[in-house]
């Protein structure tokens, strides 16, 4: 009888240890999952792309997101491992809250295999370009701290439409605008903080900015999410998921 | 009459859409960005200008000739919006939305918070109920013409959709619902059909009563389905009302589920936490009324959710997020960029500084000037304080200092017109801008007289001044030292420039004197929704910094 209860308690103890190990392992592995991030201005089609990539189907409609969409079991191809896919809200007030906070986290930044920056090619005016440049500036300042940077896909949504800006023009405008921002940034006042960081960010160099300077790849690829024309984007993701 | 009805989640996914006429996306997106993200309604209260308030839960928002009524539910969080032209007045729309919300909560069981889509069958049933409710609403309104135009299009659409999936659907239904009876529909008695046809009536619900001729089902039967559907709807609705009256009973083992899936936050176990949080905020120099409102907002977002960490920790996190959201500007301001483009147009960029007496308007203006001068811009400093004796001389000292500090003395100049009344101020401002244009100055800085924010006689000239000078940016200097009064200061100054013009941003001065008690920043931003761009951190010309939101939030939370 005594032996019996001893055995039971032993079994229970082993079970508990096993269970806790498993749970710990699961939590741990969640953090180390490869991740892909979808960012971009409001209304560029991020939420639709997220649903298309995860469920292979589009919701009836989508509106401005207030919270990020986040999944840990995203598979770009059947035989590949599960990955994390996050769709961040594009509203300016929410970028600081979600995207920039996440990018400041070194673990997450390291696990990031690719960043999909979505834009609306039809709406791409000078004003829109400035907004995109502004956000890319913040993103690159963080991703370029890694030795190899982070690969970025500039997904030009609605690229097939008649009114859309051609890709080469978008690239030209963005490059110019980012260099403009770099120059202004050199003149700007530094931010208040406890520690005096000596602004060694990517954009504090004197060189004229061009996309070739970046450590990570920066690709411009067109597509259209509503028409399901996303093959090239998926290829891009798959390429990085395999590595 | 509703032109667009949407149900969507905070993640931006629209789960249900009924659109009679195309409504531009910017209308509902405007609602989301202005109300749900910026929470401007709670800031000013001016967005909601409805004369009748049926309910606090039902909000209303207008943009571009459209009016949206909305309700939101928590657990899972969903927003219900009904949009129509502002010219049409729809009575009972609030009640309609709330009824739909109840139906939705009752019928849709999918875990929407995790991003799952609702079950197709459930959605179909909901759609039929929705259409019935909508018809009821139309009958009340009595818009017969509107009804016929509005129902025809979605009707045909949904019918097409249904035709494809019909056989599959009915089979599913049989398996799920009619197990015990096992009889097909046609053989069934009327009683059973009364009970069960709710799901099959999706077709009926979608069709207008007038469209029934020639359909498979007889008219009498249809009438019955309709009645039974309405009955079920009303049952659900009344059940919900009862539920809200009676207290929720907790099961014997609910503590176990609480142990595994996290605690559910209730009003009671939040009281202690919220008290300590609001005390923390007040200790940081946040005005008590604003601390209270912030904590209320957090409570509202937390009640009913499940937390895996301790409640105080979850509340702290929520507060941190809330502050981060509050202090982040809606659009990023890039002052140098704007100056650059104005320069390209050969126009001087005009910046005006306002504020209460002694907050450091002239000092911060000089700091700004120093920064701009070091970027090789030509700056004209203008003394628009014609009231306080010595104000012009004080500025002259600053200008002389700046002249010595820059390479080229001609880059900075003082423009002054002596002392006098309010008319003189506008005259000086106009003169300065003209002078700047003629002498190729890039930037005009207007230093105004300090004034008490609650003295209408002193505040009134500001409107005329802004009209005359048309500054590109109006900056209010507020000091970090001031406490609760900062709320009123910011509000009064923000409203002093007449309709269509507000402050552009704040400079918070004297931040080095308060340590981590920077609650005034929260006060001013909360009261006006205007962002802080710079903070003054010391006595010298170089002690001007841009605000880092992360830093501010960290300081406030420490």
Automatic annotation (TrEMBL), chain A:
<comment type="similarity">
    <text>Belongs to the SRP receptor beta subunit family.</text>
</comment>
<dbReference type="GO" id="GO:0005525">
    <property type="term" value="F:GTP binding"/>
</dbReference>
<keyword id="KW-0547">Nucleotide-binding</keyword>
<keyword id="KW-0675">Receptor</keyword>
<keyword id="KW-0256">Endoplasmic reticulum</keyword>
<keyword id="KW-0342">GTP-binding</keyword>
<dbReference type="GO" id="GO:0005785">
    <property type="term" value="C:signal recognition particle receptor complex"/>
</dbReference>
<keyword id="KW-0812">Transmembrane</keyword>
<keyword id="KW-1133">Transmembrane helix</keyword>
<dbReference type="GO" id="GO:0005794">
    <property type="term" value="C:Golgi apparatus"/>
</dbReference>
<keyword id="KW-0472">Membrane</keyword>
<dbReference type="GO" id="GO:0003924">
    <property type="term" value="F:GTPase activity"/>
</dbReference>
<dbReference type="InterPro" id="IPR019009">
    <property type="entry name" value="SRP_receptor_beta_su"/>
</dbReference>
<dbReference type="GO" id="GO:0045047">
    <property type="term" value="P:protein targeting to ER"/>
</dbReference>
<dbReference type="InterPro" id="IPR024156">
    <property type="entry name" value="Small_GTPase_ARF"/>
</dbReference>
<dbReference type="GO" id="GO:0042802">
    <property type="term" value="F:identical protein binding"/>
</dbReference>
<feature type="transmembrane region" description="Helical">
    <location>
        <begin position="6"/>
        <end position="24"/>
    </location>
</feature>
<dbReference type="InterPro" id="IPR027417">
    <property type="entry name" value="P-loop_NTPase"/>
</dbReference>
<protein>
    <recommendedName>
        <fullName>Signal recognition particle receptor subunit beta</fullName>
    </recommendedName>
</protein>
<dbReference type="GO" id="GO:0043001">
    <property type="term" value="P:Golgi to plasma membrane protein transport"/>
</dbReference>
<dbReference type="GO" id="GO:0034067">
    <property type="term" value="P:protein localization to Golgi apparatus"/>
</dbReference>
<dbReference type="GO" id="GO:0005047">
    <property type="term" value="F:signal recognition particle binding"/>
</dbReference>
From TrEMBL, chain B:
<dbReference type="InterPro" id="IPR013822">
    <property type="entry name" value="Signal_recog_particl_SRP54_hlx"/>
</dbReference>
<keyword id="KW-0547">Nucleotide-binding</keyword>
<dbReference type="InterPro" id="IPR036225">
    <property type="entry name" value="SRP/SRP_N"/>
</dbReference>
<keyword id="KW-0675">Receptor</keyword>
<dbReference type="GO" id="GO:0005047">
    <property type="term" value="F:signal recognition particle binding"/>
</dbReference>
<keyword id="KW-0342">GTP-binding</keyword>
<comment type="similarity">
    <text>Belongs to the GTP-binding SRP family.</text>
</comment>
<dbReference type="Pfam" id="PF04086">
    <property type="entry name" value="SRP-alpha_N"/>
</dbReference>
<dbReference type="Pfam" id="PF00448">
    <property type="entry name" value="SRP54"/>
</dbReference>
<feature type="compositionally biased region" description="Acidic residues">
    <location>
        <begin position="185"/>
        <end position="195"/>
    </location>
</feature>
<dbReference type="InterPro" id="IPR000897">
    <property type="entry name" value="SRP54_GTPase_dom"/>
</dbReference>
<feature type="domain" description="SRP54-type proteins GTP-binding">
    <location>
        <begin position="531"/>
        <end position="544"/>
    </location>
</feature>
<dbReference type="GO" id="GO:0005525">
    <property type="term" value="F:GTP binding"/>
</dbReference>
<feature type="compositionally biased region" description="Polar residues">
    <location>
        <begin position="148"/>
        <end position="160"/>
    </location>
</feature>
<dbReference type="GO" id="GO:0005785">
    <property type="term" value="C:signal recognition particle receptor complex"/>
</dbReference>
<keyword id="KW-0472">Membrane</keyword>
<dbReference type="InterPro" id="IPR027417">
    <property type="entry name" value="P-loop_NTPase"/>
</dbReference>
<dbReference type="InterPro" id="IPR011012">
    <property type="entry name" value="Longin-like_dom_sf"/>
</dbReference>
<dbReference type="GO" id="GO:0006614">
    <property type="term" value="P:SRP-dependent cotranslational protein targeting to membrane"/>
</dbReference>
<dbReference type="InterPro" id="IPR007222">
    <property type="entry name" value="Sig_recog_particle_rcpt_asu_N"/>
</dbReference>
<dbReference type="InterPro" id="IPR003593">
    <property type="entry name" value="AAA+_ATPase"/>
</dbReference>
<dbReference type="GO" id="GO:0003924">
    <property type="term" value="F:GTPase activity"/>
</dbReference>
